[in-house]
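Task 17 of the worksheet. Students: predict the tertiary structure of the chain below and write it out as structure tokens. Keep your answer in the requested format; marks are given for formatting as well as content.
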Amino acid sequence: MTPADQSRIARDIAHLAPIIPVLVIEDASHARPLAEALVAGGLPALEVTLRTPAALDAIRAMADVPGGVVGAGTLLTPEDVRNAKAAGAKFGVSPGATDRLIEACIAEDLPLLPGAATASEVMALFERGYDMLKFFPAEAAGGAPALKSIGGPIPQVAFCPTGGVSIANAGDYLSLPNVLCAGGSWVAPKDAVAQGDWDRITRLAQEAAALA
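Model answer:
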């Protein structure tokens, strides 16, 4: 799968909803009901970060949820790519990009949303064939004004900003012509997940889905 093919699929996923939940899952038993709650609220694309021992089991559990499209976040190494694909991830997200990571995604046919924070990083990935990127860390890298500025000379590339995105500022990003969606963790608060308050998470997802 070429980088261009990966970006085409990533764009399709980005168009599913304005927000992609960024999920840090500590207990794999929470994964399926969490996914069901988010999908019910109108957020079908789900990013499970590989930051916990439960992450791969969580991806396996979410992979079978009707209407959901589960991906793996925080891909750092080729091993991460292989493990994510084997667990059922339909796409991958990385905070940055390396040659080895890109080659692994090509070999494993895993669509990658690679991270970039500067014009030079965007240009380098665009040169490789990627035209759908993650803007990370969004707020720390200058927020919506910075992303708007990048879009001026490089309008061919679209973004999913992540990192500091909230219900309060998501609209600033989503109003930009080079933003297709944004990634955020606020739709699945840690306390709501721990308590199994799936109704609350569905309501938060509905609120986020309405940002479109």
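Marker's comment: The beta strands are 19-23, 45-49, 69-73, 91-93, 112-113, 115-116, 132-135, 158-161, 182-184. The longest strand covers residues 19-23.
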